[in-house]
Write a structure and sequence with these properties.
The protein is an alpha/beta fold. It has one domain: LmbE-like (Rossmann fold). Helices cover 35% and strands 13% of the residues. The strands form 2 sheets. Strands 3-2-1-4-5 form a 5-stranded parallel β-sheet, sandwiched between helices. Helix 5 links the parallel strand 4 and strand 5. Helix 4 packs across helix 5. The chain is globular.
Length: 253
């Protein structure tokens, strides 16, 4: 996940704007627990294959890492399409190319932690934080890359992160059986939030083993959980990570 959405302007800006929702303090995980129990649940064991599309390294682990683990254990054919290498999550700090190498290595380690190391990984190498301008290009590539799979799992196209939304929109244009996983929604939304189509949401319960594997996989992304500089905290705070260590994952139809 790259936190690249616009934030507050500099103090000297004569026309201040409200902070972007993903820069807000966030919703505590305890607020979500009871609400999630009201959503219908369903298993996904019937899938023989799935293609997972990630805007940035770790999106797929946060959103559907447990499901990836479950499907891999069941022998499903899995393909991961990594749209960017996440080189801009530390914008202005260090070498973007080195960060991209680090993050792709973290993805490989996370797939091993999930027991899904045989997942086919296709890297598109599109620029991190610029996917809105490359949406047509991505939409043209996805039909060929997703053809023949039972389901296509993609970032939610209303996640309020421009890269996530561009990927979700591109997939919905041409891919069969698209299911969307939210990432930043858990931060900016709240239970019953009218901006969220809860009638399209359903829960995927995870086995204890899959939930444990997912926690281990999230731990592989040290580039996202460590403090980036004395002035800049981690991309993934402890509060944000709490949303993804549940025993249920949420998808939108």
């Amino acid at each position: 996940m790259s936190r690249a959405a616009p934030g507050s302007p500099a103090p000297s800006d004569p026309h201040p704007i409200d902070p972007h929702p993903i820069d807000a303090p966030g919703t505590d995980e305890r607020s979500w627990i009871a609400w999630l129990n009201t959503l219908p649940g369903t298993g996904m064991a019937g899938l023989a294959s799935a293609v997972i599309v990630a805007a940035h390294p770790d999106d797929e682990i946060l959103g559907v890492g447990g499901l990836i683990s479950e499907l891999s254990a069941a022998g499903a054919r899995l393909r991961l399409i990594a749209v960017t290498d996440g080189e801009n999550s530390h914008r202005g700090l260090g070498d973007p190319a080195a960060l991209a190498r680090r993050r792709t290595g973290e993805t490989a380690a996370a797939l091993r932690a999930l027991g899904a190391e045989t997942t086919e990984v296709i890297r598109l190498g599109l620029p991190d934080s610029e996917l809105a301008s490359r949406e047509d290009e991505l939409a043209a590539a996805l039909p060929r890359l997703t053809s023949g799979f039972d389901a296509c799992l993609v970032p939610w196209d209303h996640d309020m992160h421009p890269d996530h939304e561009a990927v979700g929109r591109a997939a919905r244009r041409y891919c069969p059986r698209v299911l969307c996983y939210p990432v930043w929604m858990w931060h900016w939304a709240s239970p019953g939030d009218g901006r969220v189509p809860w009638h399209l949401a359903f829960g995927v319960p995870l086995s204890p083993q899959a939930a444990a594997r997912k926690r281990a996989a999230i731990g592989c992304f040290l580039s996202q959980t460590e403090i980036r500089s004395p002035e800049l905290g981690p991309v993934l705070s402890a509060g944000m990570i709490a949303h993804f260590t549940r025993t249920t994952e949420i998808l939108f139809r």
